[in-house]
Amino acid sequence: MTPERAPACPVGLPADPAVQRASRGQPSLLRLLLMACAVLVLVSMWTLAMEDELNLGRRPWLNLQKTMAEMSEPSFLRVWLGDSNLQVRDADGRVLRVEDERAAERRYLEGLARALWTTVRIATLGTALAALLALPLGLLAARNLHAPPVIAWAAKGLLDVLRAIHTLVFGLFFVGIVGLGATAGILAVAAHSSGSLGKLLAEAIEALDMQPVDAVRATGATPAQVFFMGVWPAALPQFVSQLLYVWEFNIRDSTILGLVGAGGLGLLLSEAMSLFQWGRLATLLIAIVAMVTAFDAVSRALRRRIV
């Protein structure tokens, strides 16, 4: 005897047609999305191959081995292992100068520490400014706060624009306006991050249970009182958690802003790569990973306590 199949729904209760249609439609939509993604991948590979943009260059593996061999000796090791009486010679073997590798590397590490501190300050001040910009925009964009439609759509559109433009693009823009330095980096971080923070805040407010808010509104409270007594206490923990996450992301993002002259570690990275100083690049990458890991741990610990 074959086992009887389990009924699709409890006996005597007809299945909801809407649920059946949804269950049939979801796999179909998923298959369509997967097929569309596969087609996009294949078309991208084929068109790039036709344009000869997928080549690996000349001797890629040999170049990779050479680069990794040089990066396996980070430059900071010269502080202890460097030659204190290094003779720099020209092609004919004549001594051009004598230098102390250990002292030179100590000076480089001091500059690296200053660049790290600049990166942290750019990310921190940029995130703080982004929070000030995102707060009113997120409130206006939240649908359940019922801002005037024109203002709500304008706020949502501005958030979309800010979020769509990369921090590096903003960095180039602000370097052209305020000049080279940390100010351009702070403004670039704030401009991009305010779009992300504003969207996250709007979504957090839209997900709130509106019964307490409606109860405050029913007492005849003003819009400001409704916000500060009903909306803000419920949204604040989520907003602070999102703020910490964006700050953590900006610490990573700010490391490359110096590539466009907006301060921080980017200038050292650009210099090391353009001069093929792979040992110093390894030192920079180790410093970046250590800094990002430390701030990630701090951010996660704080978010766990808040949420």
Descriptive account of the structure:
The structure is a single chain. This protein is mainly alpha-helical and 307 residues long. It has a domain at 113-306: MetI-like fold. It is 72% helix and 3% strand. It contains 11 helices and 2 strands. Strands 1-2 form a two-stranded antiparallel sheet. A hairpin with a 5-residue loop joins strand 1 and strand 2. Helix 5 (149-164) packs across helix 7 and helix 7 (182-206) crosses helix 9. It starts with 16 loop residues before the first helix and ends with a helix. Residues 1-13 have low confidence and may be disordered.
Examine the coordinates and then state which fold CATH places here, giving the name of the CATH topology of the domain at 113-306.
MetI-like fold
Estimate the global geometry from the Cα principal axes: globular
Main-sheet strand order equals 1-2
Q: How much β-strand is present in the residues?
A: under 5%
The CATH homology group name of the domain at 113-306: MetI-like
Element-by-element helix/strand order: HHHEEHHHHHHHH
Percent range of helical residues = over 70%
CATH level-two architecture of the domain at 113-306: Orthogonal Bundle
**Strand elements, count:** 2
**Straight-line distance between termini:** 55 Å
For the record, the CATH class of the domain at 113-306 is Mainly Alpha
Let me know the average pLDDT: 82
User: Number of DSSP helices?
Assistant: 11
The helix/strand class is mainly alpha
